[in-house]
Fold this sequence. Notes:
Strand order of the largest sheet: 4-3-2-1-5
Distance between the termini: 39 Å
Amino acid sequence: MSEKKYSGMTEQELRTEIANLKEKARKAEQLGIVNEYAVYERKATMAQSFLIDPSTIKPGELYRITSDPGVFFQVEYLKGRFAWGYRLGGVKYEEALPISLLEPLKEGK
């Protein structure tokens, strides 16, 4: 059985996949398998990105990074399910974040 790409999954399939990945991550964490935990968490984050409409992420705007409280991200452009830009403060270098990690500063969309 070949694995379906996230882009080809329905919303329900994505939600089931995310739940399965989170459960695998939880088990890996309990067993102390840190690298396996990180892989499942990353896969779940990517799957969550396919539940978000990329048009809701606006270049030029600031977003909170859900996995890094207190840190803000300036979006320069989008490519697929990734937002490219810069974290505010510190050394300015371009990086890409899955759009599921971005949270609007303004509440209510």
